């Protein structure tokens, strides 16, 4: 109602009004300013670079002088075996990661939440968070050693009676599970933070009332904890589904070798290799643009779905 | 409804904003795209030119600052702090601001049009190098206009090699001409090496034939169960020493007799040897970890002596590790022996840095100080500059006898053995290599660690240049370059798969798949370009 009133007033008045209210909030507005500026510089201006996807660009000339080639680069993508391989791997690895990494933090968070002895709770939290703070460069190096022929994994397997001398990271068929499980191990603990924060906001009287009504622990989790967290869960779902094509570049670059490459190359590492290593910027940009478009479509789809599930309210 | 309108507004704003950005960016870009191809507009020299004296001696202009971009993150950016750069600063009246970075930064420089005065890159195949005439001054023009003495110190062959349409734009370090190869001052770097104690213990084994190699490795395994019988360089950034290095050991030809491109990877002799490596692997005498180790892991294993034998590529680069092992176990130190040799009676054709060299230096055509820039090139290439950058200040760090051989002074020796960090940082000996050349290193035996001397001696007689096949890849961005990229990726996988194949049948199948992949990616179109480039190379080399 208020908005409509505003719109009926003449433009001049509206501008003055706008200025006035801006003046009242100038401290707040200046705080937002750096964010807006950096967004323009780092998110909007680079949009121009996307035009490379439709040009044939060479680094020594400028972007503006590169000749237009229309959809040429995209046509080549369709025939590129290594691109499709990387799409397959990206979706495969992401799907495994998403499924586990979506549910596991919720379960861990509820378990941590139910722990009543606080020193132990802290300990569990710290241990599960820890791998998150190690970079893939370090973690990858550790993994390669663990999975090598005399590594930790084989020693454990030998101890329980399975004789093996395989170097597991060379085995292309086990790469998907290695990549996704190691990522889960690294990130699952960290993923609980948002959930724990939300859970601490739940009114304890709900649980007291439920207990009086004779609800079991599981019943309480199912009927109180999870519904209370539904917004944040669906937000997380949207974010992770839209990230289906965002493969982990660091992880791939560290763990990939010539033997597991057919199963390890993901879109990001492919773009990196073609664009930066081989200097074929136009082609790499075309690949990147295509992937971004698909990601946006995915984002919109999940948003619509969760909206339906969430009484027609968007969580975004 | 409400939401819809806001969204629409937002979208309009976004479109307006991005188109504004595009327009401004176009405006900027347009201005910087013009290229100077003719250098007739070079201002005249302010001093008298001479063919016999370096121009820096007559140029009395005041202190000039040059920005020098080096496309390598590891380059030491200090200037004027150590003995060597202090001397350069004093002699030339030049201050240098070094900037380092990777390809991304290099590309940003080009995209912005705001170029540094000097640019050093290391890929002669790159687009940047191939289009140098659009962004760099020709060294001939600069030399004629400001410093004719430059032509006295620059190698004619090297300049000729880097010619684009009649002019040279870049000058590389470590560019070895055929005269250098013949001089005996360039030393080989690859060898099949074995631990002395292993060699003594296993008796008479013949590592020169595929069958003998497999048997020899088994013999090592029997006597030294703790050692890995056969090792090779790590795979980070390449195909280890199992590709080019082995092919060189086997003397696989670089071109066909008719001077056409020869696919060395599918050479029958080489394939025979890969198959024997497969047998060695199947017998458990190559560990799979060799395929996943990174450079650090490999270095560690070399200095621990974990491998009984190694196909060692670039021994000088692993000199410290070899020396480490040798000093701890003087009796077991690795030595080079005859091994991995052609079944067709060909001699090894070991390679070294080619005529393209390593890091290539350019003078940007946007520089305001072209005279100073070419003087700097000339100074660093001259005897004076070379002796300075390789050995430091004469008298203080080194003495030179009648034959020109260099000896460290006791003062220098003391620092070298007791304070290696000062040796590099404060005195910067042998570290300012942007115009370095092995010719000067050869003047001092101590240039190389002792542990590689025997290896270098072993291969000396096998050194052979491969100039014809340098920089013959198709231009980046072309369909052929993309196909070649895919083929090379496939080959990396194939080569290791061949060695790890379970049996001969799997080996053959993998190889057939690779040959089919080559065909599917139109290898003949790529080879056509390679053939043309080889032909152009031969013309430059005067071999046609």
UniProtKB/TrEMBL annotation, chain B:
The UniProt keywords, alphabetically, are: Signal
Would the keyword Signal be found if you checked this record's keyword annotation?
yes
Q: Which organism is it from?
A: Lapidilactobacillus mulanensis
Secretion signal, residue range per the UniProt entry:
1-24
Q: What is the lineage of its organism?
A: Bacteria, Bacillati, Bacillota, Bacilli, Lactobacillales
- PANTHER family with a match to the protein in the record: ARABINOSE-BINDING PROTEIN-RELATED (PTHR43649), POLYGALACTURONAN_RHAMNOGALACTURONAN-BINDING PROTEIN YTCQ (PTHR43649:SF33)
Please tell me whether the keyword tRNA-binding is annotated for this protein: no
Give the protein's recorded name: Sugar ABC transporter substrate-binding protein
Recorded superkingdom: Bacteria
């Amino acid at each position: 109602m208020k908005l409509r009133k505003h719109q009926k007033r003449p433009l001049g008045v509206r501008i003055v009004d706008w200025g006035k209210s801006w003046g009242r909030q100038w401290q707040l507005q200046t705080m937002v300013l750096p964010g807006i500026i950096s967004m323009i510089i780092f998110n909007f201006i680079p949009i121009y670079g996307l035009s490379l996807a439709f040009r044939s660009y060479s680094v020594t000339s400028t972007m503006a002088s590169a000749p237009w080639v229309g959809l040429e680069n995209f046509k080549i993508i369709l025939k590129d075996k290594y691109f499709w391989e990387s799409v397959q791997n990206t979706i495969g690895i992401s799907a495994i990661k998403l499924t586990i990494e979506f549910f596991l933090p919720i379960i861990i968070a509820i378990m941590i939440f139910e722990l009543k002895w606080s020193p132990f709770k802290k300990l569990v939290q710290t241990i599960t968070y820890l791998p998150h703070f190690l970079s893939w460069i370090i973690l990858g190096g550790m993994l390669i050693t663990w999975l090598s022929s005399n590594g930790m994994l084989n020693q454990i397997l030998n101890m329980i009676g399975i004789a093996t001398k395989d170097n597991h990271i060379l085995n292309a068929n086990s790469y998907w599970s290695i990549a996704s499980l190691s990522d889960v191990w690294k990130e699952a603990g960290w993923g609980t933070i948002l959930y724990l924060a939300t859970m601490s906001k739940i009114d304890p009287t709900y649980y007291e009332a439920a207990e009086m009504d004779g609800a079991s622990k599981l019943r309480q989790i199912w009927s109180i904890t999870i519904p209370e967290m539904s917004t944040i869960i669906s937000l997380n779902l949207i974010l992770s589904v839209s990230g289906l094509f965002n493969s982990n570049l660091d992880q791939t670059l560290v763990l990939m070798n010539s033997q597991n490459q057919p199963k390890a190359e993901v879109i990001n590492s492919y773009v990196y290799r073609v664009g930066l290593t081989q200097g074929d910027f136009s082609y790499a940009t075309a690949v990147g643009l295509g992937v971004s478009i698909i990601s946006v479509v995915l984002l919109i789809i999940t948003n619509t779905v969760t909206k339906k599930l969430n009484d027609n309210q968007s969580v975004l | 409804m409400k939401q819809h309108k806001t969204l629409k507004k937002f979208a309009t704003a976004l479109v307006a904003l991005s188109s504004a950005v595009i327009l401004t960016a176009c405006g900027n870009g347009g201005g910087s795209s013009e290229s100077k191809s003719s250098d007739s507009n070079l201002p005249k020299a302010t001093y008298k030119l001479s063919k016999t004296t370096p121009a820096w001696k007559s140029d009395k202009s005041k202190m000039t600052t040059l920005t020098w971009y080096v496309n390598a993150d590891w380059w030491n950016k200090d200037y004027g702090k150590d003995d060597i750069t202090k001397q350069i600063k004093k002699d030339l009246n030049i201050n240098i601001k070094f900037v380092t970075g990777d390809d991304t930064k290099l590309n940003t420089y080009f995209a912005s049009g705001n170029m540094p005065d000097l640019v050093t890159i290391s890929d002669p195949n790159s687009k940047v190098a191939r289009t140098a005439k659009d962004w760099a001054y020709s060294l001939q023009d600069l030399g004629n206009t400001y410093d004719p003495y430059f032509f006295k110190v620059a190698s004619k062959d090297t300049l000729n090699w880097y010619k684009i349409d009649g002019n040279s734009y870049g000058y590389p370090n470590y560019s070895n001409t055929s005269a250098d190869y013949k001089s005996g001052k360039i030393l080989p770097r690859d060898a099949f090496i074995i631990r002395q104690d292993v060699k003594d213990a296993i008796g008479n084994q013949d590592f020169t034939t595929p069958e003998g190699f497999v048997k020899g490795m088994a013999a090592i395994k029997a006597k030294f169960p703790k050692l890995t019988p056969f090792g090779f360089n790590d795979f980070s950034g390449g195909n280890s020493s199992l590709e080019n290095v082995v092919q060189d050991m086997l003397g696989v030809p670089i071109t066909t007799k008719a001077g056409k491109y020869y696919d060395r990877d599918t050479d029958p002799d080489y394939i025979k040897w890969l198959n024997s490596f497969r047998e060695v692997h199947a017998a458990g005498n190559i560990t799979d970890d060799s395929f996943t180790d990174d450079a650090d892991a490999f270095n560690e294993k070399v200095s621990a002596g974990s491998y009984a034998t190694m196909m060692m590529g670039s021994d000088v680069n692993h000199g410290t590790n070899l020396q480490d092992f040798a000093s701890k176990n003087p009796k077991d130190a690795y030595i080079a022996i005859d091994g991995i040799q052609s079944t067709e009676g060909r001699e090894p054709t070991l390679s070294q840095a080619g005529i393209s060299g390593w890091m290539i230096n350019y003078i940007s055509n946007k520089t305001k100080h072209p005279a100073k820039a070419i003087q700097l090139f000339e100074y660093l290439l001259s005897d004076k500059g070379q002796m300075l950058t390789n050995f430091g200040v004469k008298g203080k760090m080194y003495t030179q006898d009648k034959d020109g051989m260099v000896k460290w002074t006791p003062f220098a020796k003391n620092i070298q053995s007791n304070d290696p960090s000062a040796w590099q940082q404060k005195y910067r000996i042998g570290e300012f290599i942007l115009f370095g050349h092995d010719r000067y290193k050869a003047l001092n035996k101590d240039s190389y660690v002792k542990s590689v001397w025997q290896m270098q001696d072993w291969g000396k007689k096998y050194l052979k240049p491969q100039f014809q096949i340098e920089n013959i890849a198709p231009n980046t961005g072309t369909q052929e370059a993309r196909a070649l990229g895919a083929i090379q990726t496939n080959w990396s996988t194939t080569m290791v798969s061949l060695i790890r194949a379970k049996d001969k049948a799997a080996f053959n199948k993998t190889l057939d798949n690779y040959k089919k992949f080559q065909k599917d990616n139109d290898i003949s179109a790529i080879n056509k370009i390679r053939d043309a480039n080889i032909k152009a190379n031969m013309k430059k080399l005067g071999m046609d």
